[in-house]
Structure formats: C-alpha cells, structure tokens
Write a structure and sequence with these properties.
Distance between the termini of chain A: 30 Å
Number of helices of chain A: 3
Oligomer: heterodimer
Largest sheet of chain A: 4 strands, mixed
CATH class of chain A: Alpha Beta
Number of domains of chain A: 1
Number of helices of chain B: 2
CATH class of chain B: Alpha Beta
Structural class of chain A: alpha+beta
CATH superfamily of chain B: Beta-grasp domain
Structural class of chain B: alpha+beta
Radius of gyration of chain B: 12 Å
Largest interface: A-B, 29 and 17 residues
CATH architecture of chain A: Alpha-Beta Complex
Strand content of chain B: 25-35%
Strand order of the largest sheet of chain B: 2-1-5-3-4
Largest sheet of chain B: 5 strands, mixed
CATH topology of chain B: Ubiquitin-like (UB roll)
Strand order of the largest sheet of chain A: 1-4-6-2
Order of helices and strands of chain A: EHEEHEEEHEE
Distance between the termini of chain B: 42 Å
Order of helices and strands of chain B: EHEHEEE
Number of domains of chain B: 1
Radius of gyration of chain A: 15 Å
Shape of chain A: elongated
Helix content of chain A: 25-40%
CATH topology of chain A: Aldehyde Oxidoreductase, domain 3
CATH architecture of chain B: Roll
Helix content of chain B: 10-25%
Chain lengths: 142, 78
C-alpha cells in the first residue's frame, strides 16, 4: 500500500511547511487547502469556527477512503490534515494533497477525497458569532 | 457487574440531550440502535448516522451487551 498520511490536528498547522516535509518526486501533485471564512453561513461576521470529531472512527474513515481512492485512481502518496478545536477566521482547516504520475489522476483523486471527507467523515462545525454558537446542519455547496 | 450499553452523543445531539455519554442497562428485548434511539426520545432518527464499536452500521444491526453505541448528527467537516 502506498503511503497515506492522515492526521486530525488539535493545534494550528502551517500547510506550506507540512507540504515541504511531505512532498516527493512524483510528476504531478494536486493540493487543496481550505481556510476558515470570515463570515457565517447567513452572512454575519464570524468570531470563530469550532470543529469536533469522533476520535478513532474519524481517522479510520479518512484513511479507508484515501486508500480506496488511491487504488481507484492509481495515485502515489496522499496527505490529509484536518483541524479540530476552535479556529479563527483565515486559519487553515484542511489540507488534501495527492501525488501521481499524471495530473488527471492527482486532481480527480484529490477532488473526490475532499468531497468524501466533507460528507462521510464524522466532523461537526459550530459557528461562533456574538458569543453564540450554532451547529451547522449541512456543508457549503461545491 | 451489570451488563450495559455505552451510548455516546456528539455535537448538536449532545447539546439537545444535555449529556455526552450514558450507560444504559442492556435489555435483551431492546436489541438494535433504532430501539435504543426510540428510548432516548431525541426526535426522528432520519439523518443520524450510527456507529457500534467505532464502525458505521445500519440502525437495525443487532446489539451485543457491552457495545459502544454512538449517534452522530449529519457530518459537516472539510
């Protein structure tokens, strides 16, 4: 099995530093980085975004989906970092990176993995605004 | 020691119920996640995912004494 590194991070991470440590010599690499928006889903200024996960199950689910997609798209190493805890607007929340021999495989695998991560991994977001926390009931559209 | 089920709630479900973890007596007649959910009186099961011993399962999977049963609201990560 080619390398899949999956981490749920309680502390802030620097995506560029993590990529520098991870990157190999594959011909293609697709990278997606998500940051916390400055506004809530209904357009008010966001104070913080809180992320909760189900420890254990969450990491295993992500690893399983990454390994399935790695085989399906015949890619090389995959890196997934996902924050939990309370994040400020602008902070990196998710990093998905995929290496492959071809750009198509890298990009398709990266896009599919991000969508699965959003819909099939046990994470929950709560928006904080004016001292009030609101659990989100759905993800942002693609 | 009495045989129990460990029930976990997360995120909005936990806040709605006012508790995160509870040990329930394992009743032979109450043998699926759906039946335990109905006992908890937390609204409809629709849209809720279920994990037994850290594996996602269907609502009608039979439970065993000592299982850890988690009810998970819709996922919103990424």
């Amino acid at each position: 099995m080619t390398d899949c590194r999956v981490e749920v991070c309680p502390d802030p991470f620097d995506p560029w530093q993590q990529l520098a440590l991870w990157s190999g010599d594959a011909a293609a690499a697709a990278i997606f980085m998500g940051r916390v928006r400055p506004s809530t889903m209904d357009g008010r200024p966001l104070e913080a975004l809180e992320l909760e996960h189900f420890p254990g199950l969450c990491e295993r689910q992500i690893t399983a989906m990454a390994q399935r997609l790695q085989q399906e798209h015949r890619t090389g190493p995959i890196l997934v970092l996902h924050r939990v805890g309370k994040l400020a607007p602008g902070e990196p929340i998710v990093l998905v990176a995929v290496q492959a021999d071809r750009r198509g495989a890298a990009q398709r695998c990266s896009a599919a993995l991000l969508e699965q991560l959003k819909h099939q991994a046990p994470f929950w977001k709560r928006e904080w605004c004016a001292g009030q926390g609101t659990w989100l009931e759905a993800n942002t559209p693609l | 020691m009495d045989v129990v089920l460990k029930v976990l709630l997360f995120a909005s479900l936990r806040e709605r119920a006012g508790w995160a973890e509870r040990s329930l007596p394992f009743t032979p007649g109450v043998s699926t996640a759906r039946e335990v959910w109905n006992q908890l009186d937390l609204g409809p099961l629709e849209g809720i995912s279920i994990a037994v011993n850290q594996e996602l399962v269907g609502a009608d999977q039979p439970l065993q004494a000592g299982d850890e049963l988690a009810f998970l609201p819709p996922f919103t990560g990424g």
